[in-house]
Predict the 3D structure of the following.
Amino acid sequence: MSIEKIEMTETRITKKQVEQNDPKGAVLKFVKPDMLCGEIHQISVWQPTVIIDSHMHIQSGRCATVQFVRNQGLLSPVQSGFKFSRGMIEGSGELAGALLTLLEWMTITPVKQVASVFSEAPDDPQEGYYTKNAVLDLVSMQANSTDVIAGLFIDKRISVVENYFKHANYCPLYENAPYLFFSSVVMTMDMEYSHIDGYFGVRIYNPLFEVDKIIDPTKPDRYWTPVHGKWVETLVLDNDIFFSPLGGPKQRKSSIYKKLDDSSEAVIIDSIDDFNAHKKNSLKTGTIIGNCCDPENSKSKYYVRIEAATVLMSASETNKYENWEKQLKSTEEAVIKYPLKFLPMFHYDPRRWQFKGKNVNADLITKVMGDNALYLGFKMYTAQGYRPWDVRRLPTLKEFYGRCCKNGIPIMNHCTPGGAKSHEADEFYAFEHPFDDKQEEEALRKGRDAKEYFEEHFVSPNAWKKVLDANVELDGEPQKLNTLRLCLAHFGGPVEPGPEWSQQIIDMITSNNYPNLYTDISSSFASDKFRDYFKNLFTGELSEEHKKKLRSRVLFGTDWYMTYAYGMFNKKNLWAYCTETKTFLDSFDTSLWPYFTQYNPYRFYRLETEVFRIAESIINKRQTDKGVRKVLKKLEPKEIKKIYQEAAWIKVANKGHENYEETS
């Protein structure tokens, strides 16, 4: 390298100091122009040009069942007790949001407007004086379909990129970037098995279809749901107001779930005629049939009699609800419509897949690797009602983890006490599965109440240690799981015992036992308390060695649009979350933002090797998939060229510093 080039490098560092943020290199304090020939000098040529939002959502709020929706918010005791319909909950939410919006306009907004005059923080061009309150924005957003939410996000993404990240005064880090790309990893959410009966393959909403009609899995004619407790008769919900169970509360004694040896008793209820016949012939308390797998031989399936009433959901709820098949279809169409702006994660709930045949896990892997695979990895959400190492109840988990570990496939799992946990979370404490080890289960419950039991064994970081410390057999060979590529999302979160969980994650990462263990700061950075806690870690609490280790294992994520739920009068939309997070991180360590938004996501998600595979899958589906062609036209050659160009850019953008050898 010539002296002239070295002097140019020195000038650029002095002006912008971009190289100080190189995650792979040491901080460059100065560059001497009189380097001796024959020496090896390390010069940083790294310029961050990609921003990865590693965790966000576009699924409709109507992908959640009404049982879950009733269990949310300050009015959850009333909503659950009186069995409010979805329409009542959405309507009351909109009314409350409208009133809060008026209150905010009259009291808080004027103060914010005055404060903004003296603030250096950039103003969101899409928000003004008469903006919606966070509650109204959240309720309104949730009522949209998944495809509509995807379009709304793209609009907000364009605004934050063009008006903040590309603005030299606000974000000089990217001023000299020849190209800036912002991509979001979108989490799909399968919430249909998020109850105890899910262990036996029974959904919360079980689809029914009219006989002799062409079946569209995304549009069932009705749904039925299992309800436990003392019932006089099976109810039919033909109204959209509420229903009230007759008798006492739900009980999950072992007598409710009994293994059957006679398969002739098994009844499949997948048509309206089947439902009516079953209702007529079943006992007044109701019975349905589920399945379970022998933990010693996961290929052996047993039938289980379940005491539960089969309840028909209303026609109105059927029309409003967006099932898993519909969500998946809409998400894939959004990924294809906005190439590489969304990188999708496929939600894996073992309860959906455990009875799909002996090759189910090998088949699932094809969704995230190989030809025409559209997904980047797997999303899991154990808080919806299964334990990370729940291998006696769900033996299919062993092979699933083994295949993910062997192939380096990333898994993102929810890891905070809050969030979308099962509406039956407190009932798992007393639940007994036919294949449980009673002594082991008693030990897990000892000294804990229902809430503590669920959080510790279904959600916490320590619950995942059982997975990472395990060995499984895969294709006749032993497979250690300590190298599983796993991200424990939200870094524990701000809600107790979140800080304790954060420390568990830190201990696991710094132990050096789990080289592919990561965490993210999605949603948690909406909390001032959590941000202060995080800052203290990097400014004092951690040793330099542990800071270095943790710095390389944290991902930036927004958890959009779930962040609207944080702060009734302090809405965290995409603009606020991105700008406030970067400003806050830069206030004590300017290297963290490029670590969290580019360097770390590349390694966790393997973007350098996977982005071209996704790009080609998008192009192939857009050009040849008949279902996609019904909603999206074929790509023009120039559009295909642009997709390949952006994929090529993402592939090489994380190239770090290089060694140059001086020669005479």
